[in-house]
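lol forgot to send this yesterday, sorry. struct tokens for the thing we talked abt
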């Protein structure tokens, strides 16, 4: 269900080539996921129970 939701969702152009490093809480593997505000899919087990371990920061305003 989430897969379809994410596939249908259009990311702004500036985010399409960005990826984030994630750590999966289910299988404990590190991986890379396409940038998304909320959901980061584990490439190993397909779970969305992940957390970011590194964040790409392109803007210095925060
Ligand atoms: Zn996983």
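and heres what i got for the seq, position by position
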């Amino acid at each position: 269900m989430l897969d379809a939701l994410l596939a249908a969702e259009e990311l702004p152009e500036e985010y399409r080539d960005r990826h984030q490093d994630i750590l999966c809480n289910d299988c404990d593997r590190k991986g890379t996921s396409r940038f998304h505000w909320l959901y980061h899919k584990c490439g190993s087990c397909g779970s969305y129970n992940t957390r970011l371990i590194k964040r790409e920061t392109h803007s210095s305003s925060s």
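The longest strand covers residues 19-24. anyway ping me if u want another try
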